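Batch 3, record 17
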Amino acid sequence: MSMPIGAPTVPIARDRGGPAQPLLTVDRLVKHFPIKKGFGGAKAVVRAVDGVDFEILKGETLGVVGESGCGKSTTARLIMGLIGHDSGDLLFDGERIGSRALPLRDFRAQAQMVFQDSYSSLNPRMTIEGSIAFGPQVHGVPKRQAIERARSLLARVGLEPARFAARYPHELSGGQRQRVNIARALALEPRLVVLDEAVSALDKSVEAQVLNLLMDLKQEFNLTYLFISHDLNVVRFICDRVAVMYLGQVVEIGPADTVLAAPAHPYTAALLSSMPSMDPDARTEVAPLAGDPPNPINPPAGCRFHPRCALAEPVCRGTVPPLDTLDASHRVACLARQPGSGHTLSPSLTVAA
Amino acid sequence: MSAPAPEPAVAIRNLTVVFGGVVEAVDGVDLTLERGQAVALIGESGSGKSVTLRAIMRLNPERKTRIGGEIRVAGQDVMAMSAKALRALRGRAVAMIFQEPLLALDPVYTVGQQITEAIRQHERIGAGAARQRALALFERVRIPSPERRLDAYPHEMSGGMRQRAMIALALACRPQVLLADEPTTALDATVQIQILLLLRELQAELGLSTILVTHDLGAAVEVADRIAVMYAGRIVEEGSARDVVLDPHHPYTIGLLRSRADGALAKGTRLKTIPGSPPDLANRPPGCPFAPRCFLAEERCRVEAPPYVDVQPGHRAACWRTEAAYAAFQADKAAVAEAVV
Amino acid sequence: MAHATQAAAPVLDIAGGAAPAPTAPDAFVPSRGFWGQVGHKLLRDPVAMAAACVILAIIAIAVLSPWITPMDPYRGSLLRRLKPIGDATYILGSDELGRDMLSRLMMGGRLSLFIGVTPVILAFVIGSGIGILAGYVGGWVNTVLMRTVDVFFAFPSVLLAIALSGALGAGIVNSIVSLTCVFVPQIARVAESVTTQIRARDYVDAARLSGASTLTILRVQVLGNVLGPIFVYATSLISVSMILASGLSFLGLGVKPPEPEWGLMLNTLRTAIYVNPMVAALPGLAIFIVSISFNLFSDGLRSAMEVKA
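Prediction for the assembled complex:
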């Protein structure tokens, strides 16, 4: 069935905890970036990621959506260890990443990333087969075999090796380059692939081709995706579950069909109704939110969304809403949805029980 | 519509733009923008939509570009204009807004200074009066605490605010025509819809004639009265927004609509994509430029370029097989409806 | 070249002919590779090629000079001092000791080029090392290295060269050492800024994610992208270096008489400037021609390396 991609290079005991154990657990992840303000002035802090919790189950696609500054890309880079986190835990198949049982290098052999900028992610001085073969070579695969694998991967992502393998990145279109980046990510046979806005820069028709490819590859190679995007249509289409982030925190997480059809958090609802209408007879009349997404330097106290929220009440200013379960699979951080929170819209305790 | 102004705001006839002598970026575009109307030019990268827009103000680099055809703005022949007349046209009669306001605004002056400067360049008016106008413009584009924001530098504003400031700057000299080049592409979703609604509102209230260039069908539907779909330097379909989105007759338009992720039958099913990639504009194949990627292409399409077919009054498509395309689209729609039920 | 165009024409005819060729739009020309492209572009740049020819010719003359000089560059004749240009025996005249100018200019190229180019090569190696390390590692390593480098920028390069040479004493080796010290900081700074830019590219992150060691990433992913721009900058320094080296010799801090060297010749002929100005200016002209050739070539190299981003 699957393409012969050469002998497996990383003989790591693959599945450890069985299908029920999440492939990746992100637990209270925090990353603050200090910034200097003036001479000797008080140091400000960008709370890029401020206590993020979620799990990615084996074989699923988890979408992360949110606007600029919500910390979704920082979260991806933290997971991959490209930047170090301040506190919190990252567990991969039950093992802490960076622990003795799972050193960073071993983790990275099982998790790869595709970046948004297809051009910047390829070395302009390397042929594309060279770029793809680099990873396997680092892991000790002889050059000839590595190139062979690169070529079969190119074929798999829809780029005929005979025509493309020896090309340089600038000789390819954006969509073709992104296919190369996907092939490179797969060269190490990862279990988890983080797609950071991987289709956002592509034209719509090309985006559709790449989305189809991603779905095929997922099935063929048994992949788990973390799919970061700002496009709710794409997320709804490709993701099983979705996490909505706002100012460095997850405000809602649950099955994509539920969250994007009947959102529980007012921010998710606003994001959804901000999507341009495709019906000329039913154009959007009122913008759901005013103003720009705020800056994560000085997030508001209480619920971070309260200054822009239509449901905000005095209680939202003082109380930080926890990410509480709405039902077995759906969690939301909103006082209006939480029994006994003191919000007038909060469901009564008996109903919730 | 009124009697004394029969000339359309912008009339483009058989526009061709060739870069470096070989790349035919625009290949025979006809487009009419009636006064007070909003037209969206839709297309993917390399379709020639931005080049067409820039040609209206002759903004393409003069040395490397060869422009042919006719461009008239409010009855004036742009192709025949002197450098001085062009300067008067730009900013005065026709204003433009861009995708990235940070590149369009001058970083060393406050936005207020830039707007008053723009007003005073075209009009004899005192500094105080100009500032009053600038303030009114800021209120018009709904910038909160406008008095204070006039004295802000571009980098001190957030993305959405900057885009509003650029719109204010574009409106400074009361232009009749507004050209918008991907004005919301770089913005977050919640801000994008605000800017789209602002453009729609300004267009209606100031009677602006607007050309919006975008790759996003949704943005076009929100703002435009008419939509022109471009492919490989040609307009392949043009009509009212309703006609183009709900009753498309060109296979490329249909392909664009189908490949949207929200148009998929169900989760996990494959998206219907347009195979292949756009043609090399330096080496055009004969016939219809879309033929190599078209699901309806037949022998004739590869040999002879299709003429425009008026499928309805005011709705044209450049295709030999408009009826077959429309039928395929309707069949698709029925299948989706069935799947939902 | 003519052959290439002739060969290409029929291919185009086929593609444009009546039979539609399905693969025509994607017909792929085998890639030349980066340096192949740079060479290809350089060959089409007449100015850079002319400059390269001048440089090569001067190097060839300098190298071969012991065998090809028309006269002995060291033997003078007190009777035939300061002959003008166009003299029957001395084509380019003779100097203040009656030595043949043409022979001395040919021979002088050896030392002038040697003490001009060597410091740049040395500084290229050392400066790139410092700059790339600082740029890639970043953090406090960067701060320490680059602030140290900045100290050298406090002095104008001419003064720095003179001061170092003065402190080390006259001589060819010392003048090379002092010039190297002048150029290391400049090259290090360029190397650091280029490396910092490359470091921020996603492909470097992708390489880190593949599990490669820092050294491997530097060697495979970073070096190739960084050395080009640094090399271009270094080429542009050769002209400065030649002029500085000549200046040091002129001041008596470099080459010692009677060795022929252009800067030194300029110095010793200084006294003859009123008697025979044209001859006195000849070494200066030689320095000018070589340095401008290096500059023009490095300009050409830079534009040839600007591959589509």
